[in-house]
Each structure stands twice: as C-alpha cells, then as structure tokens.
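About this split. The held-out portion is used to measure sequence recovery: a designer receives only the structure tokens and must propose an amino acid at every position. Recovery is the fraction of positions where the proposal matches the reference. Here is one held-out target exactly as it appears in the evaluation file.
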C-alpha cells in the first residue's frame, strides 16, 4: 500500500483510442477509469496493454504523469512490480486468465470483469488458482449492491409487499442482426463474452445476489446466424 494509504492499482486494458478505428467496447475507460482516478481509496500506478508503447500512449492520452504511472507490455511486468497491490483486468473475456494468472501467482489481489473467462472449465481453473494462492479476488458483478436492488431486497426481507411466491424477469439484448466490426468477437462463441453471457449473468446477480433459486427460462433468438 502507498504511503498515502491508497491501494496501488495496475490497470490492464485501458487503451488509448486508435485514430479512426474504434476497438472493442472501451469498457475500461467508460466503467472503471472515472472512479479509480478520483477515488480516495485507489491510486493507478501502472497501465498494461498489448505493448509498452501502447501503454505509454494510454498514459499520455488519459493525462497521467509518466513519472508516476508506469507503462507495461506484458502481464508478467505487472506481476513483477512490487509497488502494485491490486490488478484490475478489463479486457476481452477469453484473455482474462492470461492477463491475471501471473499476478495471482505473485500473490497480488485481482479484479476481473464478468464473465470470468471463456467457459466454465477456464473459470474454474482461475477460481482454484486464487484459492491455492489465497489472494483476494473480485468479479465485476455488482448490480445486486446498487440502490434499487438494495431497496427492493430490503422491502422483501421486511415483508413490506407480503410474501413473494415468484417473480418474472424479461430482458432483451441490445442490437439486432448487424454487429459492428470492432466488436465482431461478440458473435464468436469460443470467446465467451457476448450479449447473452454478459447480460444474463449481470441480470441474475442483480435479481438473486448469489442466492440459490429455481429457474424456468424461455429464450428466443430473433436474429439467427
């Protein structure tokens, strides 16, 4: 931990925009950067991208001080930096494991976006590894802790609306029959991250907050491949 008392973060996936060519969803910049850079609890001390050069471009693009924020090109660089306490990975789903395994083995705490990995087997490997190394780990499922979910759960627990016998959730994936080229990996099942696995996982966490439940699911594909 830094002398300031803040948790020092190595951030994987915060990419500088490619001129004229959008890449991915830029989720790292949209969802995580605004909080991390203004938080009283965390301090970004390193960025890691596909190369040290790309990381250096991100340092410049987002206005970081290059004297204080290092630019790395491999997950091993992040893992080997003794001045990093927490590694945050916000990249394509099928690359999650490769981005954080070195840090887990280096006994660093890790945060990884949902879904954990491309499939159950790979996700279980990561789960077993963090248990083996006894590192603190967080998966980016947080809807159940939001204000709306917390209030509804409190009302149910207090019996404010009577006994809930069942509930119905209706969801619709955004988009249609055409997928933009820069997120074409969303339609590659092997990647593991798509509108269903991402959206369904977040929705179920929001509704159940991890509690066991019985499900009956009706799914309709409006735009078959």
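Reference sequence for scoring:
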């Amino acid at each position: 931990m830094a002398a300031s008392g803040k948790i020092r973060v190595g951030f994987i996936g915060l990419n500088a925009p490619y001129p004229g060519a959008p890449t991915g969803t830029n989720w790292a910049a949209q969802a995580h950067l605004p909080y991390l850079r203004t938080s009283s609890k965390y301090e970004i001390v390193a960025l890691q991208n596909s190369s040290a050069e790309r990381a250096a471009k991100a340092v410049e693009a987002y206005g970081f001080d290059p004297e204080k924020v290092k630019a790395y090109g491999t997950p091993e660089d992040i893992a080997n930096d003794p001045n990093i306490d927490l590694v945050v990975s916000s990249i394509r789903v099928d690359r999650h494991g490769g981005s954080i395994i070195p840090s887990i083995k280096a006994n660093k705490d890790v945060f990884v976006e949902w879904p954990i990995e491309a499939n159950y087997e790979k996700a279980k490997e990561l789960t077993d590894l963090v248990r083996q190394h006894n590192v603190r780990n967080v998966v980016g499922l947080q809807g159940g802790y939001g204000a709306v979910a917390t209030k509804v759960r409190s009302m149910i627990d207090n019996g404010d609306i009577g006994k809930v016998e069942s509930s119905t959730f209706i969801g619709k994936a955004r988009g249609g029959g055409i997928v933009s080229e820069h997120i074409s990996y969303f339609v590659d099942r092997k990647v593991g991250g798509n509108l269903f696995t991402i959206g369904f996982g977040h929705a179920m966490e929001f509704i159940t907050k991890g509690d066991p439940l019985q499900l009956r699911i009706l799914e309709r594909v409006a735009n078959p491949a």
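Annotator remark: Helices lie at 27-38, 52-61, 75-80, 96-105, 120-133, 147-157, 195-208.
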